[in-house]
Design goal:
single chain, 249 residues, alpha/beta, Rossmann fold, six-stranded mixed beta sheet, four-stranded antiparallel beta sheet, 10 strands
């Protein structure tokens, strides 16, 4: 079987700072991979390398055994922050339809197939009854689901998500992961998150990233893996702030 993503010996430097150092990763087709690590550890950069938005200084990246330039249309991305203008009168359906835009349609109109695919995408994330609601009126969890529907409207084979549960409560997060698990039956998923507990319960494999990647092709998250990623003894990891180290007591 052809791998969905194959990264070999990637180095990425921003000015004088090395962000990714000799990172290699293989993501089999149909995988649900979680990537954890501290702020500034290069997680978002790694996703952008997979998207072709960041060109590495050295190394190779293949999507389904071909260069990104040939298969970038097979990958969709849900960014960490995507703010809705609460005053802009755009419906949820119109937000999802933007996932159907490409170079040919940029200044054109959506056709019947586009609208059918957008409605199917809303149904997949449980928002089919929200199609006519203004996007600015959605809750945090509903907005995240709408953004995933927009990504799905592209009809991708790979879905990349950057901190998708950062702005939603725990109860909504449980339902959110259930949606992702259902989508994973047909789509390869790579998810970046600080929420180690949620990631370890819901993904199939876990990798730790802090400039270097620690990955044992397993769901098991060992103490050594966490310390290798965070570069210090870690007893508690709190979302939204720098990682926190507590004294033994």
């Amino acid at each position: 079987m052809i791998n969905a993503v194959e990264i070999k010996n990637i180095f990425v430097k921003y000015e004088e700072s090395m962000v990714l150092e000799d990172v290699s990763l293989t993501v089999p087709t149909g995988e649900f991979l979680g990537i954890i690590g501290p702020n500034g550890g290069g997680k978002t950069t790694l996703l952008k390398v997979m998207l072709g938005l960041v060109k590495p200084d050295s190394g190779t990246v293949k999507i389904f055994d071909s260069p990104i330039s040939e298969n970038h249309h097979l990958v969709s991305y849900v960014p960490q922050y995507s703010l809705f203008d609460l005053d802009y009168p755009i419906s949820v359906l119109d937000v999802v339809l933007t996932g159907r835009l490409n170079k040919k349609k940029l200044f054109g109109s959506y056709n019947k197939e586009d609208k059918e695919i957008a409605l199917q995408s809303l149904e997949l994330v449980g928002l089919e009854n929200f199609r006519d609601r203004l996007a600015g009126e959605l809750s945090g969890g509903e907005k995240q689901r709408a953004l995933i529907a927009r990504a799905l409207a592209k009809r991708p084979n790979i879905l990349l998500l950057d901190e998708p549960t950062a702005s939603i409560d725990a109860a909504t997060g449980v339902n959110f992961y259930s949606i992702l698990q259902n989508l994973n039956e047909e789509i390869t998923i790579v998810l970046v998150s600080h929420d180690i507990g949620a990631v370890s319960q819901n993904v199939n494999k876990i990798a730790c990233l802090n400039k270097n990647l620690v990955f044992h092709d397993s769901k098991e998250l060992t103490h050594d893996m966490i310390e290798a990623a965070y570069h210090c003894p870690v007893d508690l990891i709190a979302h939204g702030v720098a990682h926190r180290v507590l004294n033994k007591h």
